[in-house]
Description:
- This protein has one helix at about 20-25, and strands spanning about 1-5, 10, 35, 40, 55-60.
- The protein is of the alpha+beta class.
- Strands 2-1-5-3-4 form a five-stranded mixed beta sheet, with no helix packed on it.
Amino acid sequence: xxxxxxxxxxxxxxxxxxxxxxxxxxxxxxxxxxxxxxxxxxxxxxxxxxxxxxxxxxxxxxxxxxx
Length: 67
């Protein structure tokens, strides 16, 4: 199935969970990453149980220091 990650289409298995997608895209570099699916923030504690659906819009946001 297809999902949209930061405005780029990605093909994933129909049984893909959010954690699997993040690992395939980012590897171990998921620290400091915020995730929203269809404009809803998904807490890190739910990444492993959040099953993706066809055409989900996923936004990955990297935390940055600054002021």
